[in-house]
Design goal:
Blueprint: E1 10-14, H1 18-30, E2 34-38, H2 44-51, E3 55-59, H3 67-76, E4 85-89, H4 94-98, E5 105-108, H5 113-129
Parallel strand pairs: 1-2, 1-3, 3-4, 4-5
Length: 131
């Protein structure tokens, strides 16, 4: 529940698995986040500029443009590079992801909901401290 004057934090979720996309969107909305869910990486950069998320939760492996490429595009743009990105995948680990992009964090699928929410809150808080 938001109190008067509180700002709802925005999370952009990108995953081409519609079941995961729906579950994560539903969970984050229950935790009070405003959520935009996208099934493809191609629209992320454009939608990031219009939605202005506090954080992006990005699947590593997407059909079409993959999460690594999306992460790099966001981190290379001066207007979006400070948005924290948490990559997630069932098939890799953070050290492998960090070799190819500048993601801020990683979470493995399947994930614990509390761990996911805690990581999101931590990254948003860290970003606001360094802004």
């Amino acid at each position: 529940m938001l109190w008067e004057g509180e700002i709802m934090e925005k999370v952009l979720i990108v995953d081409d698995n519609f079941d995961i996309l729906w579950v994560v969107e539903t969970v984050l909305k229950r935790y009070g986040f405003e959520v935009l869910a996208l099934p493809k990486g191609e629209a992320v950069v454009r939608r990031t500029k219009s939605f202005l998320p506090n954080l992006i939760l990005l699947d590593v492996f997407l059909s079409g443009i993959d999460g690594i490429e999306v992460c790099n595009k966001i981190k290379e743009n001066p207007k979006t590079r400070d948005i924290p990105i948490i990559m997630f995948s069932a098939h890799t680990d953070f050290s492998a992801v960090k070799k190819f992009c500048k993601a801020d964090d990683f979470i493995s699928k399947p994930f614990d909901v509390n761990e996911l929410v805690n990581k999101i809150r931590f990254q948003i808080k860290e970003a606001s401290v360094h802004a």
